[in-house]
């Protein structure tokens, strides 16, 4: 299992991480097979309400990414919902097909609550950002800036673009909020499965 240095402190055990990654795979498979899964969390810790994103990759390329910023559901349920949404409802990609299941490599980002932040306090590789203004909002996970080699200003500008705002909106009154994320994923496609 891949553990990234973006995670501030590991809140979830290796076993819990494996369970969540496996649950994401099972949620996608269940949807393709037209069946429901039991939504009971295996531990009390995974019953806690948390926001999270599930990211899918195939052949090292993005295949879908959907999440909830707010803590709407218990984490176990959040992963179920976000995995299915990333697989079937990310508007950038066609729905996942059954023959793609063995190719899916999953990454999960469990989010802290959003907090206002000054641009000068944004730390690349630590913070994820949400920028909003005039009914538009864009969010980028902490790992995005590191993967692209962005500095702080580029990260702020790209988050504005994600919101459909001018790149300098972070300097002209847009609301800037930050969060951290515990990020973990599979070493290889399906490696969390038994």
Describe this structure in words.
With 194 residues, the protein is an alpha+beta fold. It folds into two domains: 7-112 and 181-185, Hypothetical protein ph0010, domain 1 (Glycoprotein, Type 4 Pilin); 115-179, Hypothetical protein ph0010, domain 2 (Dna Ligase, domain 1, 2-Layer Sandwich). The chain has helices at 14-33, 75-88, 142-148, 152-162, and strands spanning 2-3, 52-58, 61-68, 105-111, 115-116, 128-133, 136-140, 175-179, 181-185. The longest helix has 20 residues, at 14-33. The protein is globular. The two termini are 13 Å apart.
Identify the notable features of this structure and list them briefly.
194 residues, alpha+beta, Glycoprotein, Type 4 Pilin, Dna Ligase, domain 1, 2 domains, 5-stranded antiparallel sheet, 4-stranded antiparallel sheet, 9 strands, globular
Residue share in helices?
25-40%
> Within the CATH hierarchy, at the fold level, what is the topology of the largest domain?
Glycoprotein, Type 4 Pilin
Q: How many distinct beta strands?
A: 9
Mean pLDDT metric = 91
Termini separation: 13 Å
What is the CATH homologous superfamily assignment of the largest domain? Answer: Hypothetical protein ph0010, domain 1
CATH architecture identity of the largest domain: 2-Layer Sandwich
The structure class reads alpha+beta
The radius of gyration over CA amounts to 17 Å
Global morphology = globular
Topology as H/E string? EHEEHEEEEHHEE
């Amino acid at each position: 299992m891949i553990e990234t240095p973006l995670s501030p402190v590991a809140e979830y055990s290796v076993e819990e991480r494996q369970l969540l990654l496996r649950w994401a795979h099972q949620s996608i498979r269940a949807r393709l097979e037209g069946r429901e899964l039991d939504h009971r969390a295996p531990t009390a810790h995974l019953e806690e309400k948390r926001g999270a994103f599930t990211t899918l990759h195939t052949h090292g390329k993005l295949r879908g990414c959907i999440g909830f910023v707010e803590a709407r559901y218990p984490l176990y349920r959040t992963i179920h919902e976000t995995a299915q949404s990333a697989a079937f409802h990310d508007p950038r990609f066609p729905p996942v097909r059954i023959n793609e299941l063995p190719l899916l490599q999953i990454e999960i980002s469990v989010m802290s609550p959003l907090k206002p932040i000054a641009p000068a306090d944004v730390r690349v590789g630590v913070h994820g950002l949400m920028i909003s203004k005039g009914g538009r909002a864009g969010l980028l996970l902490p790992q995005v800036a590191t993967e692209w080699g962005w500095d702080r200003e580029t990260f702020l500008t790209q988050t504005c673009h994600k919101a459909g705002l001018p790149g300098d909106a972070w300097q002209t009154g847009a609301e800037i909020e930050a969060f951290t994320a515990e990020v973990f994923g599979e070493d290889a496609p399906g490696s969390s499965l038994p």
